[in-house]
Amino acid sequence: MAQYAAAVDQGTTSTRFMVFDHGGQVVSVDQKEHEQIYPKPGWVEHDPMEIWQRTQEVIRAGLDKVTVSDIAAVGVTNQRETTVVWDRTNGRPVYNAIVWQDTRTDQICNELSADGGQDRFRAKTGLPIATYFSGPKIKWILENVDGIRDKAESGDVIFGNIDSFVIWQLTGGPDGGVHVTDVTNASRTMMMSLETLDWDDEILGILNVPRAMLPEIRASSEVYGEAKGDLSGISVAGDLGDQQAALFGQTCFSVGEAKNTYGTGNFLLLNTGNEIVQSKSGLLTTLAYKIGDQPAVYCLEGAIAITGALVQWLRDNIGLISSAPEIETLAKTVDDNGGVYFVPAFSGLFAPYWKGNARGVIAGLTRYVNKGHIARATLEATAWQTKEVVEAMNTDSGVDLTSLKVDGGMVQNELLMQFQADVLDVPVIRPTVAETTSLGAAYAAGLAVGFWSEVEDLRANWGKDKEWQPQMDPQERDKEYALWKKAVTRTFDWID
Fold first, then answer.
1. CB 247 within 8 A of CB 148
2. DSSP labels for 467-483?
3. CA 272, CA 493: separation in Å to the nearest integer?
4. Measured between alpha carbons, how far is residue 113 from residues 118, 164, 207 in Å?
5. Between β-strands 180-182 and 216-218, what pairing exists: parallel, antiparallel or unpaired?
6. Runs of H (alpha helix) within 268-413
7. Concatenated DSSP letters for 265-310?
8. What's the pLDDT tens digit per position in 82-138?
């Protein structure tokens, strides 16, 4: 009798393999980083073969505490929108993976927006035209890598977000690998209809992307195939984009339940049930999940490009800190931000502005400011950006958020969590299992094979680790928020 469900969690900076027991507790975990490649300003790439190598390594290491035959199923969750185009016959990418943060498709997006505006496809896809999404990235690869269009037309060169690439490799690669994606990942390509849950032929025609290269769109929780290699014989049965996986892992199964993930970027998702709610406030309408034959569940999403990545930037590019946790220690050396506001529009601004021509700004500098103030402003940037998204979500949904469930790497930062509660003026709640992304993928896989019988079984696994109550004076909050907004406007239209 199987005792566990497992997940491959392929994120922007690292890959992890996690094994959970029936109660949702972590049994085994291994994690490895991969290289971030920056060929030009605004360009961000990964080597898909390095990612596949890391995936195999963490699976092997994660299996040292469990027996493969004790695993009921494995799910996959992934950095969304990151685009891989590879040769079906040999498994080799035709180009590096173009990462979701990459802005090289800004000209393509401008041309697409020239006819019908930035919201040209929003009614169908729930998304504005932006460099963030996969569709323009595929178009760029097809136009810039010689000799692959004919192969794409015939289906010998194929596309996937990282979930599709990993599932294809897991299930055999060139030897019978399954070419699928799920509704959540497909909804991030700018090419899927929210209503039909299929590729939209009109948009494919406009982008000039051949349907033959695209994966089959499936539910988030169903059996796609059987793993080969180290997980040989295990059903690959769950597939969710990382933010939707976190929503699933936080058991936000009811309309109005929301979670915020603090990772490389920040992503706030609100369950809207079986209803497609079109945003009027700069949010994305996207798929939350689909379990087997059940109707699809939708959500509103506020996507923020740079949060945890700003801490990494201070560590790797500037050398202000030598490890990410040091940011909190440094920020605690001062009582406030010293008047400094750091707007990290490195990849433009995502929700709720969608300004691809914005760039990062540090505002309010004086001779008084020291590195502690910079550290504090770095953390506060995450909380202020989240506040902007929460306000947009309250407006769109007509329901004010009463508390916020949080997860991801940055939620261990207590200074940030307290400041987040302060600026939102609602309690912030951290669960006992903070890595809810991996947990959500394991849940989806386990549900597909009957390891868990229904989603209500999963709610019983959720536990609260810590809660932060707001303590900030309302006038102080309003004053600081106005200054933050002022700093944000300074980033606009930086690129001509």
1. no
2. EE-----HHHHHHHHHH
3. 33
4. 5, 28, 12
5. parallel
6. 308-313, 326-331, 371-397
7. SEEEEEEEET-----SSSPEEEEEE-BTTSPPEEEEEEEES-SHHH
8. 999 999 999 999 999 999 999 999 999 999 999 999 999 999 999 999 999 999 999
